[in-house]
Each structure stands twice: as structure tokens, then as C-alpha cells.
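Hi L.,

You mentioned the student needs an example of a multi-chain input paired with its predicted structure. This one should do, with 961 residues in total across all chains.
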Amino acid sequence: MSIRVSNIDKRFGDFVALDKVTLDFPTGELVALLGPSGCGKTTLLRIIAGLESADAGRVLLDGEDASGTHVRERQVGFVFQHYALFRHMTVFDNVAFGMRMKPRAQRPSEKQIRAKVHELLNLVQLDWLADRFPAQLSGGQRQRIALARALAVEPRVLLLDEPFGALDAKVRKELRRWLRKLHDELHITSIFVTHDQEEALEVADRVVLMNRGRVEQVGAPEEVYRRPATPFVYGFLGSVNLFHGRVDGEAVRVGEDVLPPDVLTHEAGTFDHGAEVVAFARPHELDIVVDAGATAGVAARVSRILAFGVTARVELDGVNGTNGQHFEVELTRDQVAALGLAEGQAVRLVPSRLKVFERETAGAGAGAAA
Amino acid sequence: MDGETYREEPLMSGAVAMQWSGAGDSAARFETKAATREAPLVKWLIIGLSLSFFAVFLLMPLVAVLVEALRKGWETYLTALLDPDALSAVKLTLIAAVIAVPLNLVFGVAAAWAIAKFEFRGKHFLITLIDLPFSVSPVIAGLIYVLVFGAQGWLGPWLYEHDIRIIFAVPGIVLATVFVTFPFVARELIPLMEAQGKEEEEAAVVLGANGWQTFWHVTLPNIKWGLMYGVILTNARAMGEFGAVSVVSGHIRGETNTLPLHVEILYNEYQFAAAFAVASLLAMLALVTLGLKTWVEHRAAAAHNENQDGTS
Amino acid sequence: MNAPARSFRVLPGFRLTLGYTLAYLSLIVLVPLAAVFLKTFTLTFDQFWAVVTAPRVVASYKLSFGMSLLAAAINAVFGLMLAWALVRYRFPGKKLIDALVDLPFALPTAVAGIALTALYAKNGWIGQLLEPLGIQVAFKPLGVLVALVFIGLPFVVRTVQPILEDLDTELEEAAASLGAVRWQIFRHVILPVLLPALLTGFALAFARAVGEYGSVIFIAGNIPMVSEITPLMIITKLEQYDYTGATAIAVVMLMFSFTLLLVINGLQAWTAKRTGRNR
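Structure written out for the whole complex:
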């Protein structure tokens, strides 16, 4: 089933949780709502479910306006952040709950219910836990039971609120793969909320990036990571280096240094001469030049070299026009060895690729840059 | 990791907060650490002083009731209890409790549902109002009903015309009992239901349950211990109330005497052994109440701990 | 086009339960209480003043308030000590004592009243020990104090106990590592955390004591100007069919109770703030 939300507004007192949000969720896709806490992603999910009402705007399920439909009738499966398993019921009773609550005329027989519950428990590979109580399960098991319970009512869409948020790192990775696999089997339109970019990029077909109640960008994981549309997205998806500068013809001037025009990804003429801009580069998009005579790039001083992984990380402090700023460069260990870097050494940073944004719009993103 | 950690009952005004701690002994935590224990002398001084105080002010009155009751032997004891007036007092006490407890139980659940599961303006004020009967002297609790229903009260003339008796009759006793036990269930359930949040109820609704199903299958099992706790306290107070009932009763023997009033009458007539015999019945009720209360605390703590297992 | 969505609540029963709550509350509590205030308006202010400041009534205020304050203070000291012992020490019979602390809540006040009277009468277990010392408790103002101490104790213990249990041992360890001795730790680290709860317990015990009737009247002797408590004055007026007089005194007591209720609410907010416990 397809979901469309249009012009959704939601306020809590003075706080704007959602600001004219319009989105399409095509049938059968697994979509991630990604953003920092307080960006409105959970509120949007709850509005789609019917657990919260929007101040304005509409929710269309399969083209039909569902704004007036009670959550009971929406046929959505909702997996709560803390699972909300009924603690006084066994796993079996939890999963059977939705079927048993149906009006007598529509209610399956107890035999059918039992068959269905076991089918679902097999699906989540936890049939052997049917008689346990939620308190006796691990976090990952609870998560899967919550999912089985939501699927028991044959929902038209599956909504998951921070499905892996309360789990430890190892279980989280496992469950991620498992959820993706499950979705490939079931093909049920699913939306999950997360603040973990790695999770969103790894699991989802499409990622919706949200910030401050607005949608920043929608796209396939590859696309949003490669081509961030806004400074916020740039900063939110991975580490980033910032260069505050001023447009000088084709190039960008940072303090006394100049960033070469050939690496800038914006089209010529986008910015006025002298416009204040911020240029973004990922750590692997910077090269370190040790040649004392070099003039290209931005001057910096090596402060620390962290070479314990496959890739090495070099931390640098800005000098000249970038005093007080910090940079991070990712190199292979061989490259570090070849350069013969030492802490305190003066070098120049030469970007291989730079994305430029105007200063004002960049302000919001720079704050969130990791 | 469960997001909401369970809090022991928050303090509210009026009577006293109960706590679910019962189960474990926290003392070990303090006694085994060098920085959190006192010198043995100080420790035993504190224990000695506080236990002496406890013995003199709490234990001795309890023992005194039982000893005085049997001072003149079992025969006198049983005669006092089987006296027709005593039996009718037992009956009236039971009637008052049987009406007051369910009324305040339904009220408590309704109030806790509205307050714990929804947001609205004036919530805290409402909680304060619910607590009000605890801060009113029992004598005044009786007086207010005399002012409304008494011969000279607002409804007095009308009631007289229709030959309805409330004051100096059973309905007045029931009303006064309802008033003094008004907040017990509500104050027990409100913090409990607030702490539990509404995620489970929401989950039930998403799964298609209607309001009644949600309450019956999801909410009620989660609050049953708190509910029982509230009922035990309500019942104890309902059966033991003296001041408020005394004002509206009229002390008509065999008709409007509850057990505590019967104790008073016997005592004032210098039938001390009989008075203490009836009092011992009420003291036993108190002990049963405390026993049940401790048991419920224990069960609630156990249920709570169970729900905490395996979270991490 | 942008029609505002219908606002609704997901969980059902809000109107029903809130409506029932308000109706029941009004019927049982608010309307009858309002009767007290309306009844007072049948008096002129001078008449009202004459009733509530009659010498016998004033003597009852002094007794009720004085003894209630004293009883609450005694309870604050011993209640804290008892709570401390129950939380911090292991000793035989502790669980039983912990359960029995609530006895004054569970024991009907009339029973407590006659039991205390029997104990403190001249031939009672405690009375006969005090008699040679020239101390008389039963049928004297001191008797009132004893009864009020009895009924107030659990309030202090049960408000302080959970806070004591919640205390992080690390606080004390930190203080000890900084060189504080045990008494200093208690005085500067523990007591400030306990203080709001202790005051709340004190105020609760005080409020209860002022309104208490059942346990006091048996032991007090009820001698006019000497050992009559204020609630008894209301009863006395009622027995003389002086409804307006009884109501006037009730209004004074109610005003006092409501003020105390506000103070207690404030104290509890303070407790919550101090200890991070949410209401």
C-alpha cells in the first residue's frame, strides 16, 4: 500500500514538530526517516499510524484520506521503541492479542489463531519462546516478538519507531540484516525511524532526511550520501571538514589561501563575487601536501596521527586564516608512511572535491556536522 | 534500559506514601562500605533509641488491647463479641465498607485513567482536590453532611417531608465513610499508571482492541497490585473510622452503631473488658490489614523485579 | 484544501472518566464542603468572631496546635532515627517492625485511644511507673501529646524512608574521600537531601494531628480550658444543636488545613526537585 502525507503541520505548544511536510512512500519500499532527535521523525510516524493527530494536512493511505480514520481501523502495524510488549502475557498471547480482539464475527477460531501465531513465531525464528514472558527475553528477542505481534493483524503498512535504538551494537547489526531480509520476503510497505545514519543507509531502499520539522532530502542511500543536497545532510551523514571563505571569481578564498576552482562542485556563476560561503569536504576528500614550496590548498599543522586501523586518521589545526579550526583527513597507512608525517609538522590541505554552500544556509548544517 | 525506570511511589500530600520496596534488604549496601557505616556504638545507639520509641508508642498499645481484652477470661470476651448490639455493629461496619470500597474503587480507577493517560489543564489542581478529604478533620467530614442533610440542613426539610433519613441513620454513616476513604485508591493508582506510561495501551489500540478490551486485558493486569493495595487501605479505614461516623451516627444502639462507636459506648459505660474485647477485633483487623499490605508490597516488588530482568 | 485534521485522542474514555471524576468529587467532597462556608455567612462577622475567639475555643486552639507541633517535632526526630535504622542497619525482627510502623494507619483511632488510656492511667503499665515521678499523662494535656505522637509517627518514617533508600552511596564515599568525618557527611551531605522530605513528613504529621479526634478524646480527659482539643469543640457545639457555632470553628480549622495543604504541596515539589524524583 502506498502512503502519502501532504502538508502536515504539528506543534507542541511553541515547538514546531512538523512544518508542512509532504512525502510519498511508494508501495513495497522500506523507507528510513533519518534525523537528529527532535527533528519530528517520530511524530510523523505516529501521525501516519494515527497515534497522533496533525494540526493541518492529510494522510493518504492508498490514495484515501485516512485523517478521520481511528488508529484501530487503519490496519497499520506499529513497533514501539521500547516494544510495549504486554508484560503479563506470554509471547504467544502477545502475538495472538490482535486476532483475539477482533469482533466475534471476524475473529479467527482459536485453532486458526494458534496456527497463525506459530507461523509468525517461525518467521521471526522464535517459536521456541512461545511460553515465555517478555521479561525473560533478551532485547533482540523482544524486538522480533514485537514485530511478529504487529504482523499478526496483517497490516497494510509496517511502522517501526527506532527499532534498534535500545539494543547493543552487535545485536543491532544482526537485526538490521534480518529486518532487511524479512522485508525482501514480505514486501510490505515499511517505514522506520532512526537517528543512526549507518543504519538508515544500510537497511533502507530510500532515506528521508529530516531536520527541525522539515524534510531536507529524499533519495536512495547512495544518492544522499554522494550528493547531499543541503549542508545539514552533508554534516549529518559522516564526518566533514568545513572551510569558511569568500567567492573570488571561480575560486574560493579562505583567509590568505585559495581553494582551486577545479575541485568545486557548484556550477560557475551560482554565487556572486565576494559571497560568503562554506565549502565542505569529507576526510577522504582531502590530500596532505608536505612540500614546503607548495602554494595550493590551505595551510595547517598536524596535531595527532591515529594509525591503528586499516585507514589512518590525521588531525590537523588550521593556521593563518583558519586559526582555531580543526581538520580531519583519512589516508591509508601506507600513504601516511610515505608522507613521513610527524606531529607539529606544517603542511597544506588540498581538497580533491568540495561542495560549496552559501554561508546563511550552511549555518544550520554546520552546527550538526560531526 | 527500559526507558522508564520504576519509581517508588512519589510523595503526595495527605496520607503517606507507600512503597514497593519490601523485597530486598538495602541495608547491606550501606553496611558493607566503609564510607557509609557508623561506628558500632553509634549504630546500636540509633537502633536502641528508635526501637525503644517504637516499642513504647506503637507496640505497647497493641499488646495492651489484646491483654485488656482477655483480662476477665475467654467467657467474658466471647459474651462481649456475641452480644446482639455488637453483632449489629459488625453488620453495620461491614455494610459501610461494602458500599464505600466499591464506590471509591470505581472512582479511583476512573480518576487515575483520566489523570495518568491524558494531558489537560488543571491536572495538578484536580489531584490536590482529590487529596482534600485527607486534610479535613474527620469531625468536619461528619459535620458537612449534617449541614447538607441534617434537620436544619439544606435538604433537611425536603427529606423530612419525604420521610427519608440520612443523618442519624445508615446512609449518613455510609456517606461519611465514603468521604474519609475517598482518595485512597486514586492516590495509589495515579502515580503507578503515570509511571507505566501509555505505550502498552497504544499498542493494544493499534492491534485493534477497543477501549474496554484495552482496559481489561492490558491496563488492569498491570495495576492489579496497586489496586489491591488501595482497596486494603480503603477497607481498613472504612471499618475503623470513628470521628466522622460519630458525628452523623446518633449512637443508636443496635441501629446506627459501627464497631468503633460500639467500643466507645462500652468504654464510656465502664464495661472495659467488653470494650477491649470489641477493640481486639478491630486490632486483629488492623494486623490482617498490615499483613495483607506487606504481602501485596512483596508481590508487587517481585512482579516489578521480574519485569526488570533480561532488559540489558 | 489544507483542511485541518480532526483532533482526537487515541486512547478512549477521557470524557467519561474525567466527567465521572469531577461529578463524584463535587457530589461527595466539594459541594458538602461548600456548605460549611455558606453556613458561616448566616453569621455577621462580629458574631463569627465572637464564636471563634471565645476563651474556651482559644484555649482549645492553643492545646491542639501546641501539642500537634510538639508531637510532629518528636516524630521528626524519632521518625528519622527509625527510618535510618530500617534502611541502613540489619537487625533481627526488622521486617516485622517495618510492617508494624503503619499500625497507626491501620488501627482504628478509637482502639488506639482506649489502649493508650489504659497504658497511661495511674494503674496502667506506663502510668504506674510515671506516677511516683509526679508525671501524670492520662486525662492531662500530656495525654493529648502521647496520642498525637502515636498517630503521627508513620508519616515521618514513610516519607523519609524512600529518600534514604534512594541515596547514592557514592555521595558519601565522595565526601569521605574528601576528608569529611561521619558527622560532617550526615550534616552536609545527607541531611540537605533529606530535609524537604523530613519537613514534608513533619507537616503531614502536624496536619493529621490538628484534626485528630478518635485517639485523643479518650486520653485527654476533656477538661474545659485545660485539655479540650478543637475538634471536640465542634462536637460539643453540635451536641448543643449550635450548628452555626460548630460551623464557625470548622471554618477556622478548614482554612488552616488548606493553608497547610498548600505548604505540603510546595514541600513536595521541593522534595522532587532536590532528589530528582518525579511526582
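You could point out the following to them. Confidence is low (pLDDT under 50) at residues 1-24 of chain B. The two ends of chain B are 6 Å apart (CA to CA).

Best wishes,
N.
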